[in-house]
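Appendix B. One record, verbatim.
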Amino acid sequence: MTLRWYDWKLRTKLLVCFGSILLLFVVVGLLGYRQALHRNASNTVRNYSDGIERSYLKARFHYLYYYALGDTTEYATARKYLDTLIMEVNEMEQYQLQSPFGDADMVQLSLALVEKGRLYNEKGNEVYVLKKQELASRNSLLAQYQNFYNTLRNSESKDAALVNRLILLCGQLGEYFNADDSKCLSTAQSTLEDILGRFSFDGTRAQELAQLRQTIRETLETKLAREELGATFIATSNDLTKTIEIHDARLVSVTDGMMQEAILGLIITIILAFVISAASLILITNYIVRLVKSATARLIGCGEGNFINDIPKNIQTYGDEFGAMARSIASLVVRMQETLTVIRHGADEVALASEQLNANSQ
């Protein structure tokens, strides 16, 4: 037999209605808690991203001074910020792998940012090594250039062609030191090769020129390698900047989407809770008031002597308190009807006997 809702006890009805409302408000609390978790996760990823960006921008600023001027103190400062960048990168990677925030694209962007940050650090270290080698070669070349220039000033050579070529070589080397341009150094290397090919030297001068030739070649090779790596380093830097921008934009989009979804869920759940509360209050109140009024009216009628069994049969089938009350009132009416029938029958017999006595006495 199927249990109908009006067969439930009144307490059960109230517990189900208000329990449903309470459950909806629990859902509201869980949605709010979930929203808070999303906000905290978003803030955590944002903090990591901001930390990476700050460290990167500061390191890049000091890198530029080291790269352009060769100031090693600037590299030490850049290295400090790079260490912070690597720390932020490692923490972001660990966080996104253990408790990923956002969809798969968001996680992939975070991991791409981690990869680009590490690549920037690696290229920076390579640039530092090559720049250090270039500075050592340049300082060695500068010392040889100054020595060669002083020797040329004190030279008493009568070969005008040789002297002119040597002066040209000194000028080209001086231009390289002033402009720090690999083209100037390459031109000086060509001039020196031309001098060594056209003129013959011996003794100290031959050794000086051979050593100068070796130093120019090493300096030029190191400088060209550093410039090539520098171009890669700049491209890596630009790529990291672009990745940070894309990551931040995606983070804002994902966070806004989650917040809007959570707010919409909260609004729907709260509205649903109020609708169910109002509907439950109206239905339960009408149900109770209607049946109580019917029972009261029937009892008032019984009190006035109107013992008519007009209680609806469907109400008497209810399994709750009101069904039991309806059945009790119906039973009371039936019993009173039976009692009144017996009394009426007895009264009729008494009246008949009285009439017979009166007739016999006459």
